């Protein structure tokens, strides 16, 4: 498939921090994707929380299945826009590699623990994973990914961290946060596909869990429209088939809306190159009406699902696990694996160690070190 002039081309990549000979049968973005899929951090995502803790049920999304869904949605949009599907897939599969156990609860707790030591950002941690923490190759730390892949992974960054990255790598992936420029379209697309995937699969998992009902979600305008449409065409539908059909229709509408709105914005801005993209406002977008409806759905999920008393209870317990693990390892670094024990920056080493844990490993370690079991699998 031919690429649009504003798409990132592997043949014109800004390259890797450590130059490597090209692969005989794969371009550099395909090679990045393959390195990500074979990484240890990617495998760990299967036991990391999305919304529901991994032990609460076998069919809820994990960070791994979420990342695969983001990659699928992003590729579905990339192809008709003539963007680089290989780069989109690499970014999507890697975007959560640095996420802590226990989802956002773990991230918030670890950030609190690191408040006096530079804080903790899961996007920056994902970059740390691919830049230095993975240990797979004899000649370098990390995965030595291309600039464009690394840029897409780092979708958010505080100014302080961007300045630090700029000192380490002048003109590198931190520069755009200081210049207030945009990443490539493939990175922008993965950011929006992440939001679309959240909205869809959190409805599914929320209803499956019993914390929200299909009738509740049907009151939200965006979902309700496709719920009514599905019932109109298939009056016999009910239960999970009705839920899935309404989600499918909603997803299609979101995807086609992004395609149309992005095409229009690119045309209006006269964008003809990757450099043009970087100097504009974000180009990958929803239409104004869809953005409003998507925001309303997010507000519903935040209020009725993410802040549901049962989720809040496990959130508090998960945060306690992370905080107590952090305190234990800072006081007793020898309890960590040898590669982390030997590092001079104890607090950052502990943060790296905890961030790399799966939910169940964090629970086991907490029980081993404290003698208490806070998170008990549901019966």
UniProtKB/TrEMBL annotation:
This is Deoxyguanosinetriphosphate triphosphohydrolase-like protein. Residues 63-199 form the HD domain. Pfam families: HD, HD_assoc. GO terms for biological process: dGTP catabolic process. The keyword Signal does not apply. The keyword Nucleotidyltransferase does not apply. NCBIfam families: dGTP_triPase, PRK01286.1-1. GO terms for molecular function: dGTPase activity. The lineage of its organism: Bacteria, Pseudomonadati, Pseudomonadota, Betaproteobacteria, Burkholderiales. Transmembrane segments: none annotated. Residues 1-32 are annotated as: Disordered. Belongs to the dGTPase family. Type 2 subfamily. InterPro entries: dGTPase, dGTPase-like, dNTPase_2, HD/PDEase_dom, HD_domain, PHydrolase_assoc_dom. Keywords: Hydrolase. SUPFAM superfamilies: HD-domain/PDEase-like (SSF109604).
